[in-house]
Amino acid sequence: MRYWLIHWLLSGVALLIVANILPGIEVDGFGAALLAALVIGLVGATVGLILKVVLLPFILLTLGVVYFLINGLMLKLASEFVPGFRVNGCLPAVLGSILLTIFEYVLNRLVGM
Q: Which helix (H) or strand (E) holds 87?
């Protein structure tokens, strides 16, 4: 349980970092970032998983490019459900998903997870 709580907090921090770096992604505060991190996780675990399974041949054919598009779509979809979290456009969604993955990885390594 402690692991999931720390991971959730780090995801919120990573989302705030991405929002400060990348124009087109806006987060109103840490509370909105935490809620957005939770929704991104839930959307990715449900809709994202289904899309990744269905589109697996295209993911393999494009050497993973479609995977980035799916993750960007999950970020954009999560922004529709969370007040205070906005993703304005497809390019910021895709770039944001890539940066979010990188920052979450780095923060998890810094904490020792």
A: strand 85-87
Contact, 2 vs 99, CB < 8 A? no
For the chain, give the longest Cα–Cα distance: 39
**Tokens 């087109």 -> residue:** 24
For 105-111, the CB contacts below 8 A with 24+ separation are 107/10, 107/13, 107/14, 108/7, 108/10, 111/6, 111/10
Kindly report the pTM of this predicted structure.
Answer: 0.88
pLDDT digits (tens, 9 = 90+) for 17-72: 999 999 999 999 999 999 999 999 999 889 988 988 999 998 899 888 888 889 89
